[in-house]
């Protein structure tokens, strides 16, 4: 039971909380606001006028579409690869015991702890040493390094909650390894994989640092935005694209949050 | 009679640990067989060897005449009721019970009917649409039983099946399991650490300790004539009399067992043996009083009917028992 007295926060705390939230979110609102400004060369405040013309302009710009498709493709393929590899890795670490298991577990998580710039430089020198030309696939490889971690982390947590006897029960009842995966493991880790996949997609979609080191001539959406900022022409188009990025990355993260929260009832039931 | 399960000199070592050490046993078809022992005695490993979750380090296993080594669990005509029931949390009760039929490719209608029949058999008709999380422990136990039996196994393995239930439910399930086994005629092999459960349910009991079978026989024999000191102590906590005390009673043995209920606090009648000592402790157990008598440093427990008077602690008493109740044991 929570004490009745502590339910009401003092005014000072409320103000501090509001200030903190404002500090984090007002700049994002400004980005949204400038998507509607009539002034295209500088970001002047307050905007001299409001217009929705930049949405149409952005729609007609082929470079926006090229960057957007590239980003979606990279994120989709990197997430797909991460789902397969991350799940296999999580299964190995949580269901079996072998020499160096803890070390493998740590090494898998390490890429997300490393600064992106280190990962980027490392990958770049590895690619040039192996004479791999920078292309779409080098970007995918770069993104997969941190996408795997996100999937792995989600999957391993869920795997640990599946009791080992569930898998044995399935085998005992006549299911081979594939059937056990299909009918018992997958339904129990499904939401964790979906959540991990969504997070991985969102991470890949707005990644800049690793991409700058592993991309060739192509620009993903965030790289395109970075380049666009130094050009004085049609500036609000960048803001329109930024709004899209926020929506595309925010929705999966929100979804992942709800999926993993509900996961308690799915995997934990009956235990 | 057909042999259902045969263990020929089976060992299972985990590194330096000999979980199962040269075990020989033969379980007959239709038998209710109990493997009794403390935790870590190797009984559960034996069950897992039968189920196929473990492979023997050495030795040979046959299930209904067929070699079992190297055969995966999903190709054995054996099903298991797990200690934690291991019901699939994402499936309804009906789908749980029908799981074995589903992976064998049996049609939806047929397996639905079979699962409903199995649920009726364990007295849970109409529970099919619920989820495992909505059932009580006793109900989950029944579902686990139905899920195993629906596959018509030749041998049903039960791993501490009643361990998680409360006393009342446990006694009720003991009777139900026994009558279910009688009516189905399936060989039941069950693992337990509860000697009362093993003695009351099983046709034969194997008592395990440190990876080996200490004694294998009918419950009466194991109870009345424990072969080793361990069995005497573990099954019904017999008194273990040392060689010196045996000699005093005219018995040549390194150890002898004496059941507390075979001893009376009374002077010896004709032909009975007697010892004198002082009362060292007493406790009320309901139907009996447990009185511990100190005979020259040896503690002998006496189960005395509750109606009899209880001597005070420290008072001198004479205990007596028939010579045939004193059983010599091997030195182990």
TrEMBL record, chain A:
All residue ranges annotated as the ABC transmembrane type-1 domain in the record: 68-256
A biological process term (GO) from this entry: transmembrane transport
Domain of life, per lineage: Bacteria
PROSITE patterns cross-referenced by the UniProt entry: ABC_TM1
Membrane topology according to the record: Multi-pass membrane protein
Cellular component annotations (GO), alphabetically ordered: plasma membrane
Keywords: Cell membrane, Membrane, Transmembrane, Transmembrane helix, Transport
CDD domains: TM_PBP2 (cd06261)
Segments traversing the membrane: 12-36, 64-92, 104-122, 134-152, 240-259
Protein location: Cell membrane
Family: Belongs to the binding-protein-dependent transport system permease family. CysTW subfamily.
This protein's name: ABC transporter permease subunit
Native species: Rhizobium fredii
From TrEMBL, chain B:
Keywords: ATP-binding, Nucleotide-binding, Transport
Family the UniProt entry places it in: Belongs to the ABC transporter superfamily.
Molecular function via GO: ATP binding; ATP hydrolysis activity; transmembrane transporter activity
One Gene Ontology CC term in the entry: ATP-binding cassette (ABC) transporter complex
Alphabetized SMART domains for the sequence: AAA
Pfam families xrefs: ABC_tran, TOBE_2
Annotated PANTHER family: SPERMIDINE/PUTRESCINE IMPORT ATP-BINDING PROTEIN POTA, SPERMIDINE_PUTRESCINE IMPORT ATP-BINDING PROTEIN POTA
Protein's UniProt name: ABC transporter ATP-binding protein
Biological process per Gene Ontology, one example term: putrescine transport
Boundaries of every ABC transporter domain copy: 5-235
Record InterPro entries: AAA+_ATPase, ABC_SmlMolc_Importer, ABC_transporter-like_ATP-bd, ABC_transporter-like_CS, Mo/tungstate-bd_C_term_dom, P-loop_NTPase, Transp-assoc_OB_typ2
